[in-house]
Inverse folding.
């Protein structure tokens, strides 16, 4: 049996090495590559060994204009909202555990007033089982009466929740970009996201020399970030919300359109140059051919 397992592992290792070689070689055939974040660009640059002029960042478009209509100055419920599919990599368990630490240990005065609102889609039976496990986790941690699960909520209702809540949170590690975090900031929430990849390098970064949100790595640091955000006084909170909203405009649909157009113009220039070179070769073939 162990020999069979060993052979299987060897085959898998060889498969992934071959795949990695093919993946690494693919980039050499691209004239222009667009990456959706600084983290993705760094990854592609390292794997594909591309010259800087062949690689550019084009952030995904976010409807920040519509979300920014949500006012940042009104009083909000001290609720924490997470909008993410119920997939394993979204790590809802860390968020639930952090919320339990928050209301049991760090800010017990919120135990009966603050709510954790989990909004997401369920794709298949595996997601359904995972959702049930998350519900069970809330009972195990004695926060089930303070956690709401919403499946396949209409976007209008999602916006309503965003406009009422204090914090928007995501716990996914190495998320290439993190458009959900941008949506939190555009809607005037205080974002608490994983301290990695897109949120770390592009989104939850200082703007106008001041903080726009929080980043965390584990249960305790997420809980501490929640507490810090919820303890802000009215003026500090409003100022951070406004900075976050302004910062989110860097990822607007207009910015995306401009970046896309810039890359397309460069692509057409390269195509024109190659077409001229092909025509020249056809008209004046090399001697001997």
């Amino acid at each position: 049996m162990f020999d069979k397992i060993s052979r299987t592992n060897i085959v898998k290792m060889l498969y992934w090495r071959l795949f990695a070689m093919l993946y690494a070689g693919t980039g050499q055939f691209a004239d222009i590559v667009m990456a959706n974040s600084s983290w993705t660009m760094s990854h592609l640059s390292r794997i594909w060994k591309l010259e800087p002029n062949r690689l550019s960042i084009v952030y995904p478009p976010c409807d920040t204009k519509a979300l920014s209509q949500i006012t940042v100055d009104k009083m909000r419920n001290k609720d924490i909202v997470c909008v993410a599919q119920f997939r394993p990599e979204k790590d809802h368990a860390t968020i639930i555990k952090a919320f339990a630490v928050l209301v049991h240990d760090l800010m017990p005065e919120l135990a009966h007033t603050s709510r954790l609102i989990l909004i997401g889609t369920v794709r298949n039976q595996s997601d359904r089982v995972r959702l049930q496990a998350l519900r069970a986790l809330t009972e195990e941690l004695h926060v089930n009466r303070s956690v709401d699960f919403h499946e396949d909520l209409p976007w209008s209702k999602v916006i309503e929740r965003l406009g009422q809540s204090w914090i928007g949170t995501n716990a996914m590690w190495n998320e290439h970009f993190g458009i959900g975090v941008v949506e939190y900031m555009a809607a005037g929430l205080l974002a608490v996201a994983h301290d990695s990849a897109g949120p770390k390098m592009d989104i939850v970064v200082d703007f106008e020399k001041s903080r726009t949100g929080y980043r965390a790595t584990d249960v305790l640091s997420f809980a501490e970030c929640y507490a810090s955000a919820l303890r802000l006084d009215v003026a500090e909170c409003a100022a951070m919300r406004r900075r976050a909203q302004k910062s989110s405009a860097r990822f607007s649909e207009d910015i995306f359109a401009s970046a896309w157009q810039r890359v397309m113009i460069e692509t057409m220039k390269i195509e024109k140059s190659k077409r001229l070179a092909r025509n020249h070769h056809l008209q004046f073939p090399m001697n001997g051919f």
